[in-house]
Each structure stands twice: as C-alpha cells, then as structure tokens.
Amino acid sequence: MKMKKLSDIASSRRTWAWPYVLFLGLFVVLPLVLIAYFAFTDNHGSFTIQNLVKFFTQSEAISTFLYSVFIAVLNTIICLLLGYPAAYIMAMKEFRTPQTLAILFIMPMWINFLLRTVATVELFNMVGIPLGEGALLFGLCYDYLPFMIYPIYNTLQKMDYSLIEAAQDLGANRAKCFRKVVLPLSMPGIYSGIVMVFMPTVSTFAIAELLTHNNIKLFGSLIQDYITTSDLLNYGAMLSLILLVIIGITSFFGGDEEGEKGGLI
C-alpha cells in the first residue's frame, strides 16, 4: 500500500511542479515584491508616493527614458532590416543554405555580451573610431542582432512551402509571393524578434557605459546609478517598477496580437 502511495505521488504532475513553484517564488515573485516595497517607501520604511511623483516631475528621468526608447526603436529597426534578409536567406529552400551558416549567425549568443562589448571597444580603439552614439548603436546591433535573426529564421523554417507553390501556380511573381504569403506568415517571428531586441535595449546599461565611456546614459544606467546610491535606492526601485510595468503592458497587448497572427500558420 505504501509503495502504491509513493508511486502515485511520484507520478503526480503536481509533485513535479513544486520545484518550479519554489523557484518562481524565490527568484521571481520575491524580487518583484521587494522592488514594489522599496518603490513605495522612503528611507525610513514609511509608505509614500513621493518617488512616483518625482519621476513625473524630474526632467532628467523623463528625458532619459524617452531617449532610451528612441535608441531602442532605432536599434530594433536596424536589427530588423539586417536580420530579416539573413533569416530569409537561411530559411528558404531555394537558396540551399547549409545549416552551419545558421549556427554561425547564432554563435555570438553563446558568448557573454559583456565580453563581446569589451571586444568591440578594443576594436574601435585599434582603428581609431571615437566612442559615442554611433558606437553605441553598433554595439547594441551587434549584441542583439542574433535575437532578431533566430525567431524569424525559426518561423520561416516551419512555414508550409506548399502555400508559396500555390501562389506561384496562381500567377504570383516572386515579389508578390513574398508580400502576400511569406511576410504575413513570418509576422509572429518578426514580433518575437522585436520584443527580444527592443525590451532589453531599453533597460541596458553596461553596453552604454562601455561604448560611450559613460557619457551617454540610458534608462538602465539611470536605474543603476540610483540603486547603487543608498540615499536614492527607493527612487531607483520606483524607476525599475515603472519600466517593468511598461514592458509588461507592451508584452500583454503584443501577446494577443502575436496569437492572432500565429493562427495563420
């Protein structure tokens, strides 16, 4: 009887879910609760909304956030313009691209992004290119381009190629076939790539510090400066919470859109 009970417990999906519940509680829920706690308290632990009011009244935070969004949008557009053709060439059967080429594009993701950024800084110093906004965009694109290529490549690779053949049989040329068939079916991958590039870019700080000698501050840099300053830790927590809410809202509305587009495949 005892062996049967142990077997039932071991075969229960609820039992195997507990380690994940514990992990989420310790490393996801608890940090979010702590961020929210510090965001709505002052240095003495008293409840306050002054940190929220300060964000909307402080020009530095607002301007830095808007500039970060601008850089993130620009980086996302560059990654999309470079990443989509690469993913298309690798995924389309007509180009007969070897699988090793796809691995070469994805390989930078295996290396820590700080190492890639430091290498980029040294490369610019060797050729005498000044560090600044241009170097920042180059570094962001270099670090996040694989995150745009892979989801688009994955979506195109799973596409039903009989739909392309049917469009060609109906008289569609290559351009129209791409516009009417391939592009709509690749939209879930495009959206995933945009999310994977845009959101980390908004909150990054190490890349901006290394590639601009800390002369250009993004929103992530601002949060880091406040959190590492004991007197401004609560305000830094509020900035983190605001960024988290904005990203969450974007993901929520974008997720529904992705689900609708995903139904095309």
CATH superfamily of the largest domain: MetI-like
Helix content: over 70%
The end-to-end distance, rounded to whole angstroms, is 49 Å
Q: Report the order of strands and helices.
A: HHHHHHHHHHHHH
Number of domains: 2
**Radius of gyration, CA atoms, in whole angstroms:** 23 Å
Tell me which CATH architecture of the largest domain applies here. Answer: Orthogonal Bundle
Q: In CATH's first tier, which class of the largest domain applies? A: Mainly Alpha
Low-confidence stretches: 256-265
**How would you sum up the major sheet?**
none
Strand content: under 5%
Give the number of DSSP strands. Answer: 0
* Morphology call: globular
What would the average pLDDT be, to the nearest integer? 84
- CATH fold description of the largest domain: MetI-like fold
Number of helices: 13
Structural class: mainly alpha
Protein model, in words:
With 265 residues, the protein is mainly α. The protein has 2 domains: 2-39, no CATH class; 54-263, MetI-like fold, CATH 1.10.3720. It has helices at residues 2-11, 13-39, 50-57, 59-91, 99-106, 113-127, 133-157, 161-169, 174-185, 187-203, 206-212, 219-227, 233-262. α12 runs antiparallel to α13 (233-262). It is globular.
Layout: helices, strands, pairs:
Elements: H1 2-11, H2 13-39, H3 50-57, H4 59-91, H5 99-106, H6 113-127, H7 133-157, H8 161-169, H9 174-185, H10 187-203, H11 206-212, H12 219-227, H13 233-262
Helix pairs in contact: 2-13, 3-13, 4-7, 4-10, 6-7, 6-11, 7-10, 7-11, 8-9, 10-13, 12-13
